[in-house]
Amino acid sequence: MTIARAFLLDAPILILDEATSSVDTRTEMLIQTAMADLRQGRTSFVIAHRLSTIWDADMIVYMEDGTVRETGTHDQLMALEGGYWHLQTGTKGRAPTRPELRSRKDCPMRQNTSVYTAVIAAALSIAMPQTLLAEAPTIQPVGPLIHLADNLDEEAMLGWCIDTEGHGDSDQLHAHSCKPTGEDVLFSYEPGTGMIESATYAGQCMVYNAPDNAENPFGLIDCDEGDEAQKFAYDETSMELHLASDAAQCVTVAPTIDDAGPFQSRDLILTACDDLDPSFKQWVVRD
């Protein structure tokens, strides 16, 4: 009945929440095939714990405790060997075998004229964050990252990560394409101290030390837990990254995109949260 109502409604967005969780595998495949026409020309969000239902999604968003941890295709997430990989491999140490399909066009999970998005939750209940309506980047680096949830016009769909400015170690920070090799875009956030530390340059932390510098107000200096300018607060609900001393001011990026060799960059700045579109202030913190 629910599927029939969806057909009659003819809505441009389709949301399927555990649509096949209570059926056997054979019935699941029949349902998926039957719903291929329903997804035609629609943006589809599929929330699923049964991982076989989303192998061929255009994009998978892996979540833990309501927080987006990984995004990409099945193959990209398996290559990361992160949380999604662990769910797929279980305790056997290898990924399950994909079901055989007669051809790519016969696959009920992919339609060329629609965008099919799968959402995986590692808990029994989840809240879908606003970022799922955005254009999520394909995050490739392995390791701790702080990146914008929205791809925000990064031309290679790599997304925007906090990064040291220039080549190698630097005392200034900006936003940069999330380089697939990681390198100096790897940063970790410690909620206990509120400090953001470089994973590449040990003992170096992000600091708001140049408030009068419109282009480079953030720097990278020796970590000091007594320095209030090195303390930040991350709100997992709003996905905003604030100064710990002023929740009204959000870490964001400048509208202008600059070329940075084979990649792109933006200034990393501070702006009143209320003045920002969500795509400019929602960050994903990945351990």
Care to describe what's here?
By secondary structure, the protein is α+β, with helices and mostly antiparallel strands. The chain has six helices and 19 strands. The protein has helices spanning 2-9, 25-34, 36-39, 74-80, 83-89, 278-281, and strands spanning 13-17, 43-48, 59-64, 67-72, 115-121, 145-148, 160-164, 173-177, 187-190, 195-198, 204-208, 218-222, 232-235, 240-243, 246-253, 258-260, 263-266, 268-272, 283-286. The strands form six sheets. Strands 1-2-5-3-4 form a five-stranded mixed β-sheet, with helices on one face. Strands 7-8-17-16 form a four-stranded antiparallel β-sheet, with no helix packed on it. A four-stranded antiparallel β-sheet has the order 13-14-15-18, with no helix packed on it.
Name its key features.
287 residues, 6 helices, 5-stranded mixed sheet, 33% strand, 14% helix
Radius of gyration: 21 Å
Main sheet specs: 5 strands, mixed
Portion of residues within helices? 10-25%
The structure class reads: alpha+beta
Identify the overall geometry.
elongated
What's the β-strand tally?
A: 19
SS summary, helix count: 6
Strand adjacency order, main sheet: 1-2-5-3-4
Low-confidence stretches: 91-118, 120-133
User: What's the end-to-end separation, in Å?
Assistant: 42 Å
Mean pLDDT: 78
Summarize the helix and strand pattern as letters. HEHHEEEHHEEEEEEEEEEEEEEHE
Q: Approximately what portion of the residues adopt beta-strand conformation?
A: 25-35%
